[in-house]
Fold each of these.
Amino acid sequence: MLTQSPYILYSDGEGNIFEDTSLYVTGRTGWDAMPVPEDEWIELPEGGQLYELPGRRGIGIDVKTGEMRLCEKGWAVAAFIPPAHTGFYLAAYETAPDAPTLPLFCYTAAGWSDEKFYVPCIRIEQDIRQDCEGYDQAVVEQGVKKALEAYPHNRLVEHLANNCALTYQCPAARNYFLGRWECPIPSSPACNANCVGCISFQPEDETIVSTQDRLTFKPSAEEIVEYTVPHLESAPYPIVSFGQGCEGEPLLMWQTLREAIIEIRKHTSKGSININTNGSKPDAVRELCKVGLDSIRVSLNSVRKHIYEPYYCPNNYAFEDIIESLKVVNGFGGWTSINYFVFPGMTDSVEEYEALRKVIRETGLKMIQWRNFNIDPDWYLGKINVADTGEFLGVKQLLELIQEEFPDLKYGYFNPPIERIKGNFTMDFAHH
Ligand code: SF4
């Protein structure tokens, strides 16, 4: 553990990053900069990256006077922490009026100490499925070649190969071509929400772009079944998941998904069939549960209606529908997770905490996947009209309070395989 706060980092605007030893780094929560407790810093994990933030000056604490002031030496710096880690504080900076909107990544605080980069976060998930050291691109490409030969007419496999694995470097698609763990099933070119930070579609008039393009075709149940059954049969800890970052909302394709699940379960009882969704259509969820859906993950930026709806801008559904979808799956004995976009100051606000306790109790929630919110913090709070984020607990304390009150509630970052759902949830991943 650190004995003093790390020093602030700055960039020269040409990709070179330096420390300023006249300033300790601060962290951001909501709209405010503050000191970060020493025990909340860890070394920047493998796979983490550093970003320079144009048009932004970092906020630090003068090592001599203890005063808060800007680092005028260069642009502010933030960290993109790798999957399986949850950030406690955002990077703290002052934004110039003409600063460009930042792209859809997470901007965690970062500092320098003892010749190393440090970030305030925790490894929340022991599953190693997206650890960067586990990917050998040459083997991925061999897997792509084999799959394209095995399924020459399958548009989905072609999409997963050429777009997802080889262009977007999607960890889930690469795991499929490595024949292991969670296999993606994108299925919907359309969505019934208009999320401010949608990663598959951004309106023309926005300055930022989506990180991947949305699927352009509607796959058939046959195309889905053709490559997923062999995966469930042969992969270790197999999961097949509807709802990916390169599509709209899978529940809009529920009839095709229903047909596919029926067909899959005719061929194999192995593994877990999961859906990542905005949870907008509880009736469709019920139909999928009836035919064998094992788990659901509902994505949300908040469990408060007045924070959720300005972000998701739902078409023909409301916040209450997503809660109902969780209850439906719980009613069928299925596994329920929320994909919780963690934004320090908002997620750990006292108001959000109280609302979260209520949702966990009402829905019988099984798991929270504490995901870092990939969005420009100023842009987000501006878009949902939040000028004051209110009293807050601290993300680390929020994790502890919720776990204390709900000891059976699981924490993580990824959808668990059936072996963890039905068996030992805290299995040893070293030999995964
Ligand atoms: S629910 Fe998903 S696909 Fe739909 S707008 Fe939101 S992020 Fe985009």
Note: The mean pLDDT is 96.
Amino acid sequence: MSDLIAAIATPPIPCAIGILRLSGPGAAAAVDQVFRAFSGRTMTQAPDRALVYGTLLDREGAPIDRVLATISRAPHSYTGEDTAELQCHGAPAVLALGLEALYAAGARPAKPGEFTRRAFLNGKLDLTQAEAVGDLLEAQTDAAVHTAAGQLAGGISRRAEEIYRELVDLSAHFHAVLDYPDEDIDPFRAETLSKALERGENGLSALLDTYERGRFVARGVPCVLAGRTNAGKSSLLNALLGYQRAIVTDIPGTTRDTVEETVRLDGVLLRLIDTAGLREGGDAVERLGMERSRAALDRAALALLVLDGSVPLTPEDKIAMAEAQRAERVLCVVNKADRGTVVDLPALRARYPALCLVSARTGAGLSDLSASVAALFPQPGAGGGLAMLTNARQAQAVTRALDALREAHRGFLAGITPDAALTDVEEAMGALGELTGRTVREDVVDRIFSRFCVGK
Ligand SMILES: Nc1nc2c(ncn2[C@@H]2O[C@H](COP(=O)(O)OP(=O)(O)OP(=O)(O)O)[C@@H](O)[C@H]2O)c(=O)[nH]1
Ligand SMILES: [Mg+2]
């Protein structure tokens, strides 16, 4: 049995409108204790989802604001329960008094994400949709908004559900054949099983293929600025950010620790990591910094390899060029173009198909750099097949389902009995159930919703 929860759903700063939100049994009755409609009618009598104008009262019954109240009755609400909203002036003190009055009227404070959690428990959203709500709140680019919106609209759930249903049919049919040998049921054909498994595998691996892009869109591309000391890595970071984030000097070894900032380049969100310049020697601090540089490169989807193009390449550039290969992709950035370029550009172009000539000092070439990054990470547009996996939990569930189906298929082709293969099919169904939340452990649910803010 669920109880009545209340929260302030808007940020605690003076703003145009602030919203108090309630969900659970008795929501309308609680509002009636803190709100007087100018019409004289109570909210318990008010029609569903109509805006009612009136006065908000504090817990002593003193008027504190003029507000709009609305009731959405179960099951036609965000949470699937009776819910109420009070749209007040966005005054933090008014909202705090209003919330206190709601507590006095029987509500208790909502926990982080509890409204959305209830929506999930009441079947209003599945787990991937609930996660999409979180992604939408945190979206920093157009593509991230579109991806979260696609997931919220059920893009992933639909694809997972199609595969799930096919596997349910398969195992139901099979159990029927096994359990009722005397009944007139179509015999189970090996070919049917094999085909169905193959369809499931194809669907799941297509879904899994969306993960890398989906993750980059939702969380940003991990991108490391690599290069020898004094190549201009920190200058480039500052130029891309548009302010002096990192210290720049002409002393080699200026940057010693990693510095991380997010930046949007042509719609691509980059988690840009400035690192200690790579060179032989250096003091103990610098050497530790270089270890961090290497570790960052190992995790990077992109290295921006910064070279000082105004002087010939040095042995330290060669070290940096080799280290940059640790990243999944390398974009070569030939810097200091304002001083003239003496490095052998054709030779570099032959080695690095993605290459840009820039000046971190004047800003020349930075728009080309943005375009080159965008070309490496094409962003999905609005409505363009947006069912993308965006987090590790989703990817792990799909991977488990796919592995189980492959196992079933392998075993089946190797001649193990179909009922043994079906055990693996059922394992795949379990993993798909976890993806959408049909079957999911309580602690996993806790973790997902604890990421949300109070009032969401
Ligand atoms: N003329 C010119 N000078 C630049 C440019 N970019 C950087 N510099 C200069 O090069 C020197 C080194 O720049 P940094 O950005 O500190 O180089 P870094 O690669 O971060 O160096 P470390 O942190 O020591 O590894 C500074 O004196 C900068 O002003 C550029 O595009 N043109
Ligand atoms: Mg630096």
Note: The chain has a mean pLDDT of 91.
